[in-house]
Amino acid sequence: MHRLVLLIVAALLLGSSPVCWAQEARSLVATTHHSDTAPQTAEASVPAAPAVYHVAEVMPAFPGGTEAFGKFLRDKLQYPQEALSKSLSGKVYVRFVVDERGHIIDPQVVKGLGAGLDQEALRLVRIMPWWTPGLVGGQPVKVSYTLPIVFRALE
Question: Residues in domain TonB C-terminal (predicted)?
Answer without folding.
Answer: 64-155
